[in-house]
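User: Hey, quick favor. My workstation is busy. Could you predict this chain's structure for me?
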Amino acid sequence: TNGKTTTTQMLESMLIADGRKAAAVGNIGRPIVEAILDDVAYDAFAVELSSFQLHWMNDVPLHSAVVLNLHEDHLEWYEGDAGMDRYTADKAKIYHGVTHSCVYNAEEIATERMVEDAEVAEGARAIGFTTGIPAVSMIGVVDDLIVDRAFVAQRQTSALELAKVSDVRPYAPHNIANAAAAAALARSVGVKPQAVAEGLRNLNLAGHRIQRIAEADGVVWVDDSKATNPHAANSAMSAYPSFVWIAGGQAKGTTFDDLVARYRDRMRGAVVIGVDRQLIAETLARHAPDVPVRVLDNPHTDVMDEVVALAGAMAQPGDTVLLSPGCASLDMFDGYAARGERFAEAVERYLR
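Assistant: No problem, here it is.
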């Protein structure tokens, strides 16, 4: 559900660091067919696939595949009582026909069950990833190192260092998980350990993902516009001890009760916009009645100047003003990138 683009970019960077001609394609932006028709003879593709793309696909014999996590999203499309089941089934199709490694999140049982149920090629392996200490046949973290206990000969008794946690930038727990997943895919095609580390260090992630855009008077401003569902917003919120939350847009059938209840003690305030603003405002009123909330009815893109001014007035030194909407953006903007850009421009004007 979340982290696909980041993990795809990490994998591409690791493959390139290993000396391979590789490209990130698919839902990340560049069509697979366009890359296949390119004059470059690629050695490998790092392919991002959405649930919508997987819905229409059958029998894709991928070398290796991963489902990073599974949480409510796109339930306006997967509607009805069985909507989440259909969403899960579409995600699980990525594993069918895998010839080498089915990588799953050892901290989310739903992804492991997908692997258990998948029809794969004979000899295909199940490989876990975790942000904790890895068991055999997993990639994980030990003493601030990302280590391999899956693709090493002595995996029963030892682990191979792949990278330092500090090689992952920007640092956040969910990015460590993304890096471990990318490393598992890279190692499944024989990428050398030093190339995993080099790939992480060389990586320049696409914008609007917990992107620090400014700091003034002790307040940090962060653009996480790519957080288009509550689970993605959770990943950003977990990284900041005190923040003003900028939220709203198209909720896509999801709810915010768990998110608000979990982080209400960290919220200095909230500014809410978008078509589903009342849904979020009502959730804040239920679970965080002491948090100051401003709800803006302005449906135009110029609302960001007012949003930033209100958030800036709420913030205190040591706080983060966090644009992590938890919603899609197309009710007001051309996309999450446009939303993030309008936010950054408004912050620049506000801080002049």
